């Protein structure tokens, strides 16, 4: 059974843009779509009448969204789900059997701005999470992915490479390494800076190692940025891209916390549809 694309539905232009993006992906991948709208009971009036009115409005929104989805891509199977609980709970639960969760940008998600909400969803989702804005997608080419040598970013590169190869796009792997202030003050010599950059070139090369074997026709560009913060470097690199891919924030290492900070900053100034991948922990065998 094919895993559906789960779309978080709210009544905004960005949500409709996310729906269009998800429907296009579903049609190209031949996947079904599940539209999910969450009604958080914590914010409902205790009166039965008020609750019924809100749920009726929610069902109406889902019905209209499903009808619009059918107009966009008639070949795609579309189902709807009204969930009693928070958006995070709803999308976490549905992500268990999903190929991807898709949400739109905006600030009307209960629980905070979209950057916070998206990272919260990405942290608990069991599949990649795509955040889609209202950018004009015409004349865009290429897929960009962030790399920092962590397990998360390595798996993000693998995901991005598969996407680029499947869609006939070129892949740009960006590794941004601003020098720590302590090194700049204590060791300003050019040879020290070059040594640091050479080590990071090795990290970048190791990150993309194996892509040529797995995807012989894929064009891969390696970009090492040494004069900019990771979020700014990625936002700039993806300004005209069709997709940006980032690793999710994990637990237990400073590098992973940095990736989470980078993803958060990127989502606040979304350059294009952005996917936050979910790290797959390797199982240890004896």
User: How much strand?
Assistant: 15-25%
Low-pLDDT regions: 107-112, 250-258, 282-286
What helical percentage do the residues reach?
A: 40-55%
| Beginning-to-end CA distance, first to last residue | 32 Å
Description:
By secondary structure, this protein is of the alpha/beta class. The protein is built from ten helices and ten strands. The chain has helices at residues 13-29, 48-72, 87-95, 114-124, 151-167, 181-186, 190-208, 211-214, 230-237, 254-268; strands at 5-8, 33-39, 78-84, 100-104, 129-132, 143-146, 171-176, 220-225, 243-247, 274-277. A ten-stranded mixed β-sheet has the order 3-2-1-4-5-10-9-6-7-8, sandwiched between helices. α4 (114-124) packs across α10 and α9 crosses α10. The longest helix is centred in the N-terminal third of the chain and has 25 residues, at 48-72. The two termini are 32 Å apart. Mean pLDDT is 84; it is low at 107-112, 250-258 and 282-286.
């Amino acid at each position: 059974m094919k895993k559906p694309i789960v779309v978080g539905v709210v009544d905004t232009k960005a949500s409709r843009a996310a729906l269009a993006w998800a429907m296009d992906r579903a049609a190209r991948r031949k996947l079904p779509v599940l539209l999910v709208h969450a009604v958080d009971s914590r914010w409902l009036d205790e009166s039965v009448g008020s609750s019924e009115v809100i749920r009726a409005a929610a069902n109406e929104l889902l019905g209209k969204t499903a009808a619009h989805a059918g107009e966009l891509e008639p070949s795609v199977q579309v189902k709807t789900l009204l969930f009693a609980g928070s958006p995070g709970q709803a999308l976490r639960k549905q992500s268990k059997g999903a190929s991807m969760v898709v949400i739109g940008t905006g600030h009307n998600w209960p629980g905070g701005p979209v950057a916070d909400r998206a990272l919260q969803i990405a942290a608990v989702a069991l599949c990649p999470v795509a955040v889609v804005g209202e950018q004009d997608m015409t004349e865009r080419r290429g897929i960009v992915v962030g790399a920092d040598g962590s397990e998360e970013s390595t798996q993000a590169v693998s995901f991005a490479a598969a996407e680029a190869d499947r869609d006939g796009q070129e892949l740009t792997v960006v590794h941004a390494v601003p020098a720590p202030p302590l090194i700049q003050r204590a060791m300003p010599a050019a040879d020290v800076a070059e040594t640091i950059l050479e080590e990071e070139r090795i990290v970048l090369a190791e990150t993309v190692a194996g892509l040529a074997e797995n995807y012989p026709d894929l064009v891969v560009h390696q970009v090492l940025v040494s004069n900019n913060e990771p979020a700014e470097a990625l936002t700039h690199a993806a300004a005209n891209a069709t997709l940006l891919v980032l690793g999710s924030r994990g637990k237990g290492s400073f590098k992973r916390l940095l990736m989470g900070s980078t993803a958060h900053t990127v989502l606040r100034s979304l350059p294009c549809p952005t996917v936050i991948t979910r790290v797959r922990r390797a199982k240890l065998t004896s």
